[in-house]
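A favour, since you know our structure tokens better than I do. Just paste the record in under my message, thanks.
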Amino acid sequence: KIVSFSDNAVPGALFVSVVQGNRIIDPFDLADSLIHEHRHQKLYLLERRFVMTEPGGLVISPWREDLRPASGLLHAVFVFVELRRFWEYVQENGPERLRKRAINQLADTERNLTDAYETLRSCPLTPAGRALASLLEREAAQQPLAA
């Protein structure tokens, strides 16, 4: 497993492991991790200006086994909409060795986004959160997305 994370207490900082076992990670895994954490940081900054969720219970996230607050699900959608664009680019333009992986990644992401949008529609989002969720869903529906 490749470890990456970001923390909204450290604006703009991305933490990504570049070694897995005794080897350097694949450049496409690094790109995936950097995009992932960059998107979290972008949403953290937006959340400093606009509250996105109302207090509420936990919801199902198709990317996690545990229940998440609505803000966690919104973060996941914000991240994976962009990762979908990346993997579409890899599928179309990347090395042949990654074609099947990109196809699988896209299938998983598409299924998870569909489930996540359905859940977000019933989440306690603020008007800003609702606007962002709607924008992400509309933009994701426009195929194909350019990288």
Notes: The chain has a mean pLDDT of 93. The chain is about 55% helix and 10% strand.
